[in-house]
Every structure is written in C-alpha cells, then in structure tokens.
Amino acid sequence: MAHTIEVAKSGRAQCRGCRNKIEKNVLRFGEEVPNMFSEEGGTTFRWYHLECAAKGKLANEVRDALKGWTGDVPNREALDKLIAEHLHADYPYAERAANGRAKCRVCDATIAKGDIRVAFERVVETQMGLQRGPGYMHSTCTLGYKDAAQLGKDALQTALKEHSIHLNDADKGQLAKDVEASESKMWTGEGEEGEEGGEEEEGDDE
Ligand SMILES: [Zn+2]
Ligand SMILES: [Zn+2]
User: What is the pLDDT of residue 192?
Assistant: First the structure.
C-alpha cells in the first residue's frame, strides 16, 4: 500500500487517531487501505495527524512516507523522536512465539510457544473496521504463504535477516534453513480460497 503525506485541502477530515478534525493546511498522513465498497479492489485513505499516526501503530509507515515528502515538516525533531519510540519490526520478520495462540496461515496448525514464526502484515476486516496486524506462520511453512512466494525466496531471506531483530544468530541460521525447506510447500495459487473473516485474530503481542 502506498501511504501518503499531504497538506489538508479542507478542514473536514477527521483524524482516525484522536478523532478531532484535521485543520485545513495542516500536514496529514494518509493510510491507504482496501476500499470495501469497491468491487475492483480499489483503495481509499484514512487520515491522521502525523503525530497521531506515529504514536498509533503506523510509525514505520509515517517514517517511510516522510522519505517521499520534500516539503517542510513542522516540529520535525519531535516527530522523529515519536516515530523512533514507536517503530515496530518491519514486515516480514521472524520471532520466537511468545505464546501458543496463533494459528499458522499456511498449514492451519497452532504454532507452539517458543517456535520460530514468521509474521507478514495482514489487513483484516473486523467489527472495528479494517485493522492492520501480523499474520503468522511456521518458519517451515513460510513459502507456502502467498505474500512470501510472491516476494521470492532470496528477497524473503534477505528481508527476514534484516527485520528479525529479536532473533539471535543461531536462531537466524535455523530460520534460513527452515525457509529453504519451506520451498517444498511453495504457494502456487491453486486451491486458493477467499480470506476468511479475521475476528478471532490473535491480539497477542505480549
Ligand atoms: Zn489526531
Ligand atoms: Zn504451518
């Protein structure tokens, strides 16, 4: 998704973070999300004050969007500090499962506590609206996941190596082997089913 930063053209949009209006001419962050009313897979933007997005779950996204913004940013230092405090590991990343609640998106079996699991970002529709969060899989199942297969094995290995900031070197070695082994489960697009609802999503970050 291509998130964006722009100067608010009107004062009508409501910030999805603090729920106050975003005043005209103020910089705002647009979170691009699938438009559920679009049949053709269109997208729409949800607007935030920069600070509200940064201190919500979107610090990484604000950081990336700022790289493409050439204009001035008021209070840039304070904003950068806020972003740094709220950065999460970039997707996809791997970690040792903190609990045994998540189900593997590939084989549907539960991922045991302590197992190495890979997380890809998922956007799920819930009663609260669209929510961003991690979708988990066994490291040995990784390439069976559509997003992983589409990324390609080499790019996936590189990304996981860089992003898995909570794994030690031995675990990273194991992870690389597991991903290699998951090639036997490579996603091919056959038997693809629609995404099932995500209401039981595991909100399980410690
Ligand atoms: Zn706000
Ligand atoms: Zn699995």
Answer: 58
144 C-alpha vs ligand 1 centroid, how far in Å?
39
Q: What is the pLDDT of residues 52-70, one digit of tens each?
A: 999 988 999 999 999 999 9
Q: Which protein residues have a CB closer than 5 Å to ligand 2 (ion)?
A: 104, 106-107, 138, 141
Which top CATH class is 4-86? Answer: alpha beta
N- to C-terminal Cα separation, the chain: 27
- pLDDT beyond 50 at 137: yes
CATH hierarchy code of domain 93-185: 3.30.1740.10
CA of 178, nearest ligand number: 2
> Are β-strands 129-138 and 93-96 bridged in parallel, bridged antiparallel, or unpaired?
unpaired
> What is the C-alpha to C-alpha distance for residues 121 and 61, in angstroms, rounded to an integer?
12
35: tokens are 């438009």
Asked whether 187 and 144 are in contact (CB, 8 A), the reply is yes
Distance 134 CA to ligand 1 centre (A): 24
